[in-house]
What does this fold into?
Amino acid sequence: MSIKHSINGLVEVLNWMVSQGYPRESLLQNTGIDIHRLRDPHAMLNSKEELAFYQNLLDVSQDPDIIFKAGFNLKLSAYGMWGLALLSSPTLEKAIELGLQFVDFSYTYNKITFFREPNLAGLRISKSTDLGELQQPMVERDLSAIYALMKNLLQIDSPYTEVRVTWARSSKDTLYESMLHCPIHYENDKSEVLMDASLFDQELPQSNALTMQLCKENLQQLLPGIKDKDTIVEQVHNYFIRGPLFKASIENCAKEMAMSSRHLRRLITDEGTSFQILLDEFRQVLAEKYLKETELKLDDIAERLGYSDAANFSHAFKRWTGVSPRKISSGDK
It folds into this structure.
C-alpha cells in the first residue's frame, strides 16, 4: 500500500526553485504533472510522480544539496489540515504524537519515530522503502523539513541541539552546521534530530483544543482516500519479500492474493512483464547484495534464492549479468 501526497508541498518547492532561476518545464519533465493539477488544491501525487520531480531537482540544478535546501521551504501552511493540527496542539509532544498518528499526510518517504534520552528527545528517521539514489537526499530533506516545522511550531530560531546521520563526514559538513545551527555527528546507526527535552512539554503559542479536535476528525475522514493500492507488480514483489523463495510460484502467489493463477498471469501480462521475469529480477538484486556485502558461500546464496545448488545459481547469474558470480563476490567463495 503506497500513499498519495497533496500537491501543495510540491508546488511550494517548485515555486522556490523557479524563484532561484530554474525553468519550470525542466523541473516537471517526465513527471506527468500538468499546469491544471498545479492549480488544483485538491490534487494528489503518487510516489512515482513526486520522486521523479525530486530527481529532476538534482538533475536540473546539478546541486547535490538542493533537496536538503528544499526542505527548509516547506512552510507549515503547505501541509494543510495536518499542519494546522500540529499548530493547534497544546504542547510540542502532543503535536508530534498527533503528527505521527497521521504521518501519511506529511511528505516523508521514511519511517519517523519519537524517542527520549536523558535531557534530550527527538525524532528518528529510518528507511521505509528503497529510494535508490534518492535515499540519502530524502533523509536530508526530512532533516531540513522537520527543522522548519519545529521552528514554526515553537517560534524559535534554532530548535535542534544536535543531529546524527548514518553517512560519513563529507564536504556537506559545513553546510549542515550552518543551516541546522547545531553539531552534526556522522556514521551513526540511525539518522536522528535531537532537541532539549524541556521543549516537548512547552505550551505551543497557537494551541487551540477545539481546532485540534476538528483537524483530527477531518484527518481521520480523509485518511482512506490518500492510500493508493499497490499495483499487481508491487504485490508480487511483496510476496517475494515475505518468502521463502524456494516456494515461490505463481500458484502460491495467486493463492495469497485470493485469485486464480490464470487471472494473476493475465494481470501481470497487462503490466508488461511476467512472473518469471519479476522473480529473476528480484533474485538478481538479492544475489548482487549477498555477493557484494556478505561473506556467504555460493551454496548458501543459492539456497536463499531458491536454487537447488551453486551450479544452477551460477548459471542463472551469468545469464542475468554476463559474468560469473565469483567475479563480483566480496571474498573467496
